[in-house]
Every structure is written in structure tokens, then in C-alpha cells.
Design brief:
With about 425 residues, this protein is an alpha/beta fold. The chain has 13 helices and 13 strands. The longest helix has 22 residues.
């Protein structure tokens, strides 16, 4: 698309935006004077769908009216409501996905199964600048197996003077360490730079070289087009409170490829992973469900899942193809305006990205604080980045135009 830098052009983009109507599906935060803020923090916490209270009230009423009978009537199978929509979201079979627990807990459950080191192959490939909880998870799993993280971790690092990873370097690292690598574990989108990785090729190269391949999709689910089944990914997990707008602490999604469903390896066992037909026979012998649900530990957190159900219904109506299309358009429009009007701002996010732009700005922390005072909600990440993430379902092109204007004023004044 050929962009223009006028406000009239931004208005034209909004008028022709087929997702613009979904802004009305969300509550939009306001300042003390009842003016709408510019909310560009969907990569941290998405806005609340207006229907959330209706979904929660339904479950609360059932609890108050039925008590434990609500379990039989509705709650036992509640998590199954997400199978179809979640499968479409990440490009999976319905049997390959399940919603449960929180993200890092799910990462641990998956690593217990899929990180199986031996004396020769015990190393894990990870980004050097991965999100801290990923580091904590893999380090603790390495230690549980009796290895030293300093020896077991192969950290992918950008070249000197560069901010992002080159895919050729990723592939070369996999191939050069093929006899040592037990697991490749990367984020789908780097939380700091906003770079999205070629998950298809990474999985292909990893599996060709005999490694298990897993991804943390916290910044990818609801942001990028994913085809986890077709890409032959072994496992992945993601949160639902960022782009998926399910609220703080909302449950996580999990993908386990179909080839692993008749699993005989290690995993932590729980009642809800037991065969549904025999679950209430209360046997002491675990009879696993031969789907991703076999990794479940406990019954579904209904009050946490109800907001996710409201959000997933919006996603299903909008469609990931349209969401991805606008996500690309609105981020490239923002990039265009910044390059045109504020050349002192350095955008480290490459073209391979989702909705996020990571900006290196002179006196960046002061600029971020100024933006906040002017009603722009984005975030600061040490040492030098302002992260800005316009969400395709509720942000407008005019907001992007106004943001760049405010950013320019902040830097000039």
C-alpha cells in the first residue's frame, strides 16, 4: 500500500477498514476528563471485551443456583468450547490444542515431557534476549536433569552492531550443534525487538537435525498467521491476555502435535488428563486421554475461561486473515509516518513482525513518561526501547497519526 502523511489519509484508512466495527466490542480506557486514551499496549494486556460481564454472570448465576450440579450441567466440558476456535487460531487440529493453567506452568509441563537429554544430546537453543520466564523455565529443567545451564544453553545472539537475529545464523547454529541439541525452544516473536521468526523453517531445520522443536507463542497467538500442525512443530504454549484480550491471569493455550498423542514418555499426571469415560471411576491407574488434553492436570478455571470465550468469539467473527492483514498495514503505516516526520527515531523491528514496533528514541525514558502524560499507553523496556503495539481489532489509523504527532512534539520540545 502507498501511504500518505496527511490526517485525511488516516481518516480514509479508517473509513475503509473492515475491522473498524470491532472497536465497539471493547471498553476503551479514558483519562480523568473522560477523554479516550491512545492504547497501544495490546502486546502486554489487551482491552476488555464488553461481553465479558455477560459471560461471567452466566457462570456465577449457575453457581449460585445449582452449586455442584453446575459441574454436570456445564463445567466438566467447558474447556472443550475452545477446541475449534483455538485450533483455527494456531493452525492445528482440534485434538492438538487445549486451554489450561497459566503460560509458564504449561511450559514446565511441556518441558518435562519434551526435554529428554542424554549424555551426548542435552543442550537447548534459546534466544539470548528471551523473556526472563523462558530462561527461568529452561534453566530449572536443565538443573533437574543434573546439567549446568552455562554448558547446556546455546544462546542465539545478533551479530556485533546488530539488534535482530539473522535466520541464516539460526539455521547454521542448529546444524553445527546437531549432535548436542536436545531441544530448540524459541519465542515466535521476540518481546523486546518485535522480530517474528520463520517458525516453519526453524521447525524444518530442527527436526531434520534430530531435535525436538517448541515455541513460546505469547506474542504470536492472535497476532500472526500460524500453521503449527503443517509446520510439524512438536509443542508450543501461549498466553491469552495479550493480543487475545482475555484479561489478566487468563488461562494459557497449549499445542501438542498429533504424533505425540499416544505418549509413553514422562509427564506430570493429573485427574483431568485421565480418560473421560473412566475419570469418575476414581481408579489409581492413570488412563491418559490420547489428545493434547492428556497433559491437563486439573479441571478448568471457569471464571478465568469465561472472558476468553467472549474474546475468542470476536476473533472467530473477525478472522485471523483479516486481523493479520490490518496488523501489518497499521504497523507499516506507523513506520512510514515516523520515517517521514521523526528521522531521529530508530525502529529496530524488522519487516518480519506482528503489530509491534520497538523504537529507540533519544532520552527514551523521559519521552515515554511524556507520552503517558499525554494519554498514550505504551511501555518502556530497558535499556533503550519504547514498545508500541496498535491492535487490529480496536485501534484506528487516526490514533496512529495522533501518536506520531505527539511523539514528534515530545522529541522536539
Amino acid at each position: 500500500m502507498k501511504y500518505e502523511k496527511s490526517e485525511a489519509f488516516a481518516q480514509h484508512l479508517d473509513e475503509t477498514d473492515k475491522l473498524a466495527k470491532h472497536r465497539n466490542d471493547f471498553f476503551y480506557p479514558k483519562d480523568n476528563n473522560n477523554n479516550e486514551l491512545i492504547y497501544f499496549a495490546g502486546n502486554s494486556l489487551g482491552l476488555q471485551p464488553k461481553k465479558v460481564s455477560d459471560y461471567l454472570t452466566k457462570e456465577l448465576c449457575l453457581w449460585s443456583e445449582k452449586g455442584v450440579l453446575g459441574q454436570e450441567e456445564r463445567w466438566i466440558e467447558y474447556h472443550e468450547k475452545f477446541n475449534e476456535s483455538t485450533a483455527k487460531l494456531v493452525g492445528a487440529l482440534p485434538s492438538e490444542v487445549v486451554v489450561m493453567n497459566a503460560l509458564t506452568l504449561n511450559i514446565h509441563l511441556l518441558l518435562i515431557s519434551f526435554y529428554q537429554p542424554c549424555e551426548a544430546k542435552y543442550k537447548i537453543i534459546i534466544e539470548k534476549d528471551a523473556f526472563p520466564s523462558d530462561y527461568y523455565a529452561v534453566q530449572s529443567q536443565i538443573k533437574l536433569h543434573g546439567f549446568e545451564p552455562k554448558k547446556a544453553l546455546i544462546e542465539l545472539t545478533p551479530r556485533v552492531g546488530e539488534k535482530i537475529l539473522r535466520h541464516d545464523d539460526i539455521f547454521a547454529t542448529i546444524e553445527s550443534h546437531r549432535d548436542e541439541i536436545a531441544l530448540i525452544y524459541l519465542g515466535g516473536v521476540n518481546y523486546y525487538t518485535g522480530q517474528s521468526f520463520n517458525l516453519k523453517e526453524i521447525a524444518k531445520v530442527g527436526r531434520k537435525n534430530g531435535s525436538i522443536v517448541g515455541f513460546n507463542l505469547a506474542h504470536s497467538a492472535g497476532n500472526l498467521l500460524l500453521r503449527l500442525h503443517d509446520w510439524d512443530v512438536d509443542f508450543s504454549a501461549w498466553c491469552t491476555y495479550k493480543y487475545l484480550c482475555a484479561g489478566p491471569g487468563s488461562p494459557s493455550g497449549v499445542f501438542v502435535h498429533k504424533r505425540h498423542h499416544k505418549w509413553n514418555g514422562p509427564r506430570l499426571l493429573g485427574w483431568w488428563g485421565n480418560n473421560k469415560d473412566s475419570r469418575f471411576e476414581m481408579s489409581s491407574t492413570f488412563d491418559p486421554i490420547n489428545t493434547a488434553e492428556g497433559w491437563q492436570i486439573s479441571n478448568a478455571p471457569i471464571m478465568g475461561m469465561a472472558p476468553l470465550l467472549a474474546a475468542m468469539n470476536i476473533y472467530s467473527k473477525a478472522g485471523m486473515n483479516s486481523i493479520r492483514e490490518k496488523g501489518e498495514n497499521i504497523s507499516f503505516y506507523m513506520e512510514f509516518l515516523i520515517h517521514q516526520q521523526i528521522p531521529s527515531v530508530h525502529i529496530i523491528t524488522p519487516e518480519d513482525r506482528g503489530c509491534q514496533l520497538s523504537l529507540v528514541v533519544p532520552k527514551g525514558k523521559k519521552i515515554h513518561d511524556y507520552l503517558l502524560k499525554k494519554g498514550v499507553i505504551c511501555d518502556w523496556r530497558n535499556p533503550d526501547v519504547i514498545r508500541v503495539a496498535p491492535h487490529p481489532l480496536y485501534n484506528s489509523y487516526v490514533e496512529v497519526f495522533n501518536f506520531v504527532k505527539i511523539l514528534k512534539d515530545a522529541i522536539e520540545n
